[in-house]
């Protein structure tokens, strides 16, 4: 990094969407007070010195918002999130929301948008009024939900719930992964072309 706040586009997105769910209050005030108190002590034991080093932590190698106030950092992250909706076509914006958003409603918006685009090629099309019976819905959540929230999203469970074969679902999941990987690569490349000239991140030559 050479002064950019983010190492690359992916870091900019993941940081910006995490910032959206971070409390506005200054959660580091107590930590800074403890560091100041420890720093003015005339002498410290080895255990106390180790404790201070843990409080100080290590500089991040992928994010540097040190030149910004807390509110400025939040504003910068908000601009990154706005750029997703402003610069990307709907399919790519939906893929980015599904991948990076940390809020349930926003992540569902991304997944729902992808369902509308992809359900026409589902292996077992369900009635348009019942998205929850569409395998594409479950396969997308299987891809984008963190593993700790993935209960009920194994191929076996999806097959039983949607009355489709596991082998058919596995093929469909692989097809979706290929398609969505490509959408996400195009989205990152588009955002990189916008972010690098503004000094937000370094160029990483995102493949298109």
Outline of the structure:
With 208 residues, the protein is mainly α.
Describe this structure in words.
- The protein is mainly alpha-helical and 208 residues long.
- The protein has nine helices and no strands.
- It has one domain (9-195).
- The protein has helices at 9-19, 29-39, 46-56, 70-87, 90-100, 104-118, 135-144, 155-162, 166-195.
- Helix 1 crosses helix 4 (70-87) and helix 7 crosses helix 9 (166-195).
- Mean pLDDT is 81; it is low at 123-129.
Fold topology:
Layout: H1 9-19, H2 29-39, H3 46-56, H4 70-87, H5 90-100, H6 104-118, H7 135-144, H8 155-162, H9 166-195
- Count of helical segments? 9
> What number is the mean pLDDT?
81
Which residues form runs of ≥5 with pLDDT under 50?
123-129
Please estimate the helix content. 55-70%
Structural class: mainly alpha
Distance between the termini: 23 Å
Our estimate of the beta-strand percent is under 5%
- Characterize the main sheet: none
Radius of gyration (CA) equals: 22 Å
Query: Outline, from the CA principal axes?
Result: globular
Using DSSP, what is the number of strands? 0
- The tally of domains stands at 1
Order of helices and strands: HHHHHHHHH
């Amino acid at each position: 990094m050479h002064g950019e706040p983010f190492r690359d586009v992916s870091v900019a997105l993941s940081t910006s969407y995490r910032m959206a769910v971070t409390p506005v209050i200054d959660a580091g005030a107590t930590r800074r007070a403890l560091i100041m108190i420890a720093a003015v002590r005339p002498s410290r034991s080895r255990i106390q010195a180790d404790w201070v080093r843990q409080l100080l932590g290590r500089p991040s190698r992928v994010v540097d918002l040190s030149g910004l106030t807390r509110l400025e950092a939040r504003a910068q992250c908000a601009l990154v999130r706005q750029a997703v909706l402003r610069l990307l076509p709907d399919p790519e914006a939906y893929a980015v929301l599904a991948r990076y958003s940390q809020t349930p409603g926003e992540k569902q918006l991304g997944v729902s948008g992808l369902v509308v685009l992809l359900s026409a090629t589902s292996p077992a099309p369900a009635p348009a009024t019942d998205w929850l019976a569409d395998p594409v819905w479950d396969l997308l959540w299987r891809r984008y939900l963190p593993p700790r929230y993935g209960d009920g999203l194994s191929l076996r469970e999806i097959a039983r719930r949607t009355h489709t074969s596991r082998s058919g679902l596995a093929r469909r999941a692989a097809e979706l992964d290929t398609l969505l990987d490509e959408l996400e690569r195009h989205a990152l490349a588009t955002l990189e072309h916008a972010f690098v000239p503004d000094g937000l991140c370094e160029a990483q030559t995102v493949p298109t």
